[in-house]
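Thread: zinc ion complex, take 2
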Amino acid sequence: MTLRHDEALERSRTITLRSVQVELDLSSADNLDIPTFGSRSRLEIDCHEPGAGTFLDLKAESLHEVRVNGVLVEQPDWDGNRLRLSDLAEHNIVEVTATMRFSSDGEGLHRHHAAGDGTYLYAMSFLDAAPRWFCTVDQPDQKARHSFDVQAPDGWIVRGNDTDKPLASYLVTLVAGPWVEITRGRLGLLARRGLSDELHRDAEDLFEVTNACLAAYEDLIGIPYAFGDYLQVFAPDFNAGAMENPGCVVLREQFLHRGQATQAQRASRAGTIAHELAHQWFGDLVTMRWWDDLWLNESFAEYLGHRICTEHTQYPLWADFGLRRKTWGLAADKGPNTHPVAGNGAEDTTAALANFDGISYAKGAAVLRQLAAWMGDQAFFAGLRHHISTHAHGNASRADLVDAWRAQGVDGLDNWLDAWLTTSGPDRIQVLDGPLRLERVGTPKPRPHALHVEVRTPQGSLRDERRAVAHDDLTPLDLRHEPGDLVLPDADDTAWASIRPLVVGGADLTSVAAHRLPTTPRAALLGLLHDALRDARVAPGALQDQLLAMAAVEPDATLLAAALDLAHACATVWSPPDVRPARGARLADAALHLLEGAEPKGDHHLLAQRAVIASTTHTDVLHGLLAGETPRPLGPEERWRAIQSLVALGEDARLVDDELARDPSSSGQLHALTARASAPASSVKRAALDRVLHDAQASAYQVSAIAAGIFLPGQYALVQPLAVEWFAGISQTSRLRQGWGLTGTVRAGFPHGVADEQVLDAARRTLADPEVHPTVRRTLADGFDDLVRQSVSWKVCGAS
Ligand SMILES: [Zn+2]
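Output below.
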């Protein structure tokens, strides 16, 4: 059941939650036959209208006893979600004793068990899952002191938010299990025992990044970190990248890379660390009143995380932001569910969860980056310091932040914020030929775009450049240029727009890839080619050729990874099925060539290995890699991908058993599920689909792993009928799963690249059904937008 904004407002008019004391009996948590645990909550609640009633949030298995001010409530009014209280006094003690269920979907109190490793628990309260493990008033403006008394099996380590400061319920956590823990001063790192080697291997890097960013934030914001020790727990089966629980951040354990990782992967982890640290102020210390101000959390954490990590650690992140985060956000902003960055209209918690998307993160961050450049760092950060210090340990809204900036005396702030924060959809910025002009097409309101425009010769040297602010519909560009030159309107990759460059004289967009550009404009170019592919403005075959030519000489590993990924997308989902084998073979040949020329210890070698594994149809090549016929043996993750590729090509699925014997870890078990579902046999696919649509026992991770093996781009004829069935059956999975587990399993199983009319019709039928759960509908609508774009790409440019 979802909480509406008006209900939250009404409840806060009636009561204030002062403190929450929780007793948890987890003493049998390591016995998997016992699915539940005891939870007793003691809530201190002030009532502003004595005599009035309210409700608490409680999603328990069973309710045993409710006492209000010591008096037993004979027949508690509890519907499985809400516990209604009546006739409250001015000050109340409410005691609730209940039995809760361990979860397997990554929300509430999640239990993970791995043979030979042990049982581990972590609590994920976000977004509205706190009542799945204790009784509370679950809304972000009810910040209260929390304390926990936990009974756990002998030898377990139990950690959580170790603070007496008030916390919103969505930020309350607990982790328990036989963790490995490494501490350094106030910092701590925890992981499963099975990842002990990886944790020790990476601890120095993790501490260094954390210390550097923590010091940078304290300096920048001028308020010390407020929540005691700072633990980072690498947890199994975690749905999100990480969760910013004050003083006890939970991260997905895949960040402790098994085997080899690229510098870009370590940089991405450093960026996540910096992001969660930013939340300790933006979200944790000052919390939004309601979810419609989600951007006050995520846009700031995303912007500051990228900036602080780039400026204070060895991991620069802006290229990756342009290549992965901006492309994600731009797709969302052009999609059917676009919304403004601020004031996203979260009328209830279900709608709020749906808005944790590329707009709240990437677009918000890009807009803040533009804002900081527009008003200057000094005013930008002075406003933030004022805002955080004024509302520390409380709540605030957009209006409070705007007031803090206004107090800095910045002119034109309201118009700027109005144009960027309250309107949705990206503008299109394009360069028009003879005479050169910038054209802005988009929102009717003027929107200032600060752009760095460059003219590059066909050899890549700079012919001319200038800074321009495009807010009108046409902006003249006084720049020297010759036929064949490339005019790139966002050469420093800081804009938020669908960017259309120009090759003077009218050459095709793919020819721009031939220009030899410096790193930043080259990254910007890759980003806009991604955008062009999604719009069917460029033929996937021609684009793939250009990308492979770029990849062959690309010195930067982050850009190489992006070029290879985009080339893979061109060869698969964006191309019609009949041309996929030829395009896949071109990619495999190019990747093998890269592999032969790459230095074995470098990132290029690892990226080429991965690209070969993902694209080759030569089983002897895959067997050779698995047998170690390569200067650098495959790591466990790459081995599993090679096994999956072999099974998908029709090799005996007993390969999976052999690999599991070699790698029986939790990660290995999940890879085995994916590999088995990849076999090109109708019976296998059907059984896998059956589990995705009907298995209520499997964890969200297990379902996603199975789903990831079904709709493979090289098995079109086999999986096309199953895509129709998937659309017919997916809506009822909202009865089996909830929250992020539901979103994640729908997303993991989405039949990308299966985009013929019959499948599109099946999708349309499901989307037209009014009974479809809003969470499923939102995820389907986003995926459907991709499918329609793919079908257009097939028709418009499939032949070339
Ligand atoms: Zn965040």
